[in-house]
Structures are given as C-alpha cells and as structure tokens.
Amino acid sequence: MSFMRRSAEHGRGLGRSFAIRAAAAVLVAVTAGCGAAHPGSPTGPVPADAGSAGEVAVSEADLQKTVDQALSTGDVAASTLPPLMRDALARASHPLTSAQIDKAYECWKATSCTLGDGPLTLAQADPFGGNTWRQFTKMNVILQALTHPEIGRYVYTDANLDLATYQANLRTLTAQGADVIVTINEFGPAAYAALTAAQRQGVVVTTYLGAMDDAPPTAYTTRVQYDLCATGRAMAETARKATATPGPVAYFDGLAGNPQDAKVKSCVGDTGAETSFTEATDYTAAGTQRAASALIASGKPATAILYSYANTVPSIVNAYREAGKEVPAIISLTQSNAAVCQRAEHPYPLYLTNSANWAARISVDAGVRAAGGAKVADSVVFPLPFFEVTDSDCDTSKPAEYPGPALVPDALTAKMLAAR
C-alpha cells in the first residue's frame, strides 16, 4: 500500500512540498531497491541522501572507512555490499552537527520524541531493550532517522522478552499511526501474525537481524540479516582453526527456542561438527555462567564453545577459572570490551564478529523508502566475518559494557556509557 493512500487512511495530509521530495526520492530509491546499477561507482561519489535532504555525497574512500569500522575488518570491499547497505552506510559516513547530537541523545533517553517536522512516524518495537547492545542499536535507529527529513516522530517500545507484550506493542504502535516499524523478531513464527496484522493496516514493517528466512512475505517489507547458515558453517570452521585437535563443540543458545540460534546450530551440524552440549543462557551473566558450569559438570568434551552473544562471554571464562579448568576456544557473535579485555589478562582463543548494531540503519532506510512509495528489496543479507581477538582490541578507555564500534560518534558514545 502506498504512503499516499495510507496517509489518507490515517487522516494526515502530506503537503505539496513533501510530495515533491518523495517523488525525487523514488527515482533514486527504486534503482537501489531493485538491484539495478548503484549510482555510486568505485570511481565516483556515492549519493547518501536519496533526494530527501538535498544532494549529498560521500567518497568511496570515506564509505570504505565506514564499512571497515562497521565490520571490524578491512577484508570486505564496499563495492560488494548490497545496495541498501551501501546507501545506509553512506548516510552514516556524514558527521552530525552538535544540535543533531544533542537531539539524538535527548531522544535516546525517551520513549518518544520529535525529530523534525516531517509527516512520517517511525517506531521501533524492541523485544528487549535491557542491555548495552540494545541501547546502541536504538541509537543507530535514531541517528539514521535524523538523516531523513520525512521523519517527524520516533516512538520506542520494549517488550522485556515477553511475547504477549511484544504483540500488544505492535498493535499499539499501529493504532497510534506508525508509518514504519523497525524490529528484531526474536519470537520466530509466534510473531508472524502480529507483524502481518501491522502491515495489513498499512504499516511498513522492516526487520533487522533475527531469523526471518521462513516468514511469510506478508509479515515484512524488508528483512535485514546475515546469512544464518553461512554463519553457522563459519563458526564450525573457525572452531577447527582455533583448536589444536578436532573434537565436539558446545553451543550456548541465547533464549530457549530462539529461531536464530536454532538455524545457526543446525548449520554448524551440517559441516559434520558434533555438538556435545547445548544450553540456553537467557543472555544474562548469571545464565551464561550457569550454562558454562553445567557444561563443566557434565564432563562432556568440548574443544570450543559457540555462542551468539559476546557480552556475557566473561561469565564462561569465570566458570572455567573457578573450576580450575583450561578455557576452551570461544567463537561468539558480536563484540564486548569486557570479553576482549579479560582475554588480554587471561589469554585463550577468542573469535568475535562486529556487533551489527548498524543493521537497524538499513531497516530504517528501507522503511522510509517503502513508505514513500518506492519498491525496495525484500531482503538484505550482509557479511558477518569473524576475527581473532588480540590484546590491542581491548580499549581501556571504554567501560566493560562497550559493544565495540557501533557507528555512534565518540561524543554520543561517552554520554551513553556514562548514563548506563
């Protein structure tokens, strides 16, 4: 359903000035969303604002610098990335004004705020917002929203890991007139009906991360995620490289029944790797230490532990050290300053990925474009390379909960970490 039609149903007029801007945005957005030749080539500037705030461009060198920071590696060329990802990171390459930084922080502390005078309402339905990774993801959504003058209002909800609350929040955001909802679906098929209902009411739903491979197309407009199966295979291969002798691995889930973990774990098995032990951690330090202690007590062999959340990796190490056991190799998704600094003090093989908070930026862009009537790609699959942690990865100037490079300016990062 087009943005024009939905605006009438919501009882809001666009105004001639936004209609002209939206039409200009469609010309650029359609070519990027349909997989046509990207307007920025390796020899020229990359348009960053798709007509929504005037013609602004970023050089390929600056874009590559942002890509390297986002992925925590210089091994991925910007030219190889999906068009929507390139465009989102191009927007993220532009410095913010002090007024924008102040506005972003004010909005981050609230559950709703006014970002500008545009007619769009952007909502973020978070299944859980209670850790630093989630809060840096929220800031990425806000920062990306600030690059879109079409967005006037931002609304945030936190379901605190409760499915019923998450479903209710989606209904409430729809009733409140949200034009775009960005979300990470951690409830799998149980959330599909609620997501579909939001889209049936004219809301554009875009997802970041989570397992949406098998979701019906009615449940989302664009899903942004890494290749779950490729990641599982990469975890298994990394475990082989990290250990002196081959053997079974343990897999720690985040939430019990999380479809993302289930998919990754199944693809670990597709490589021939044997999983000798599995346990859910609830993404908490206590839950992770409990899982590690259970693994140790089981006596089951594990040459490596595979895990989807680096922030609580220190609890695994603590359990092994308290038991007087050698810490096995740990291969985990995302980053954690606590984990890398602990490893610097007590070395063991540790492999991580970038934190991918920036993935939500792509969802924002896709949602705004779709709300403006543009056709966008129904999926954006981005690379998630692993890297071996070294002592130099420990940033002693940052607190333990810092999730690594998150495309948030240093001035904002400092304020956010101080507020935690």
TrEMBL record:
Periplasmic binding protein domain residues: 128-332
Pfam families in alphabetical order: Peripla_BP_4
Domain of life: Bacteria
InterPro entries given in the database record: Peripla_BP_I, SBP_2_dom
Name of protein: Substrate-binding domain-containing protein
Organism: Pseudonocardia benzenivorans
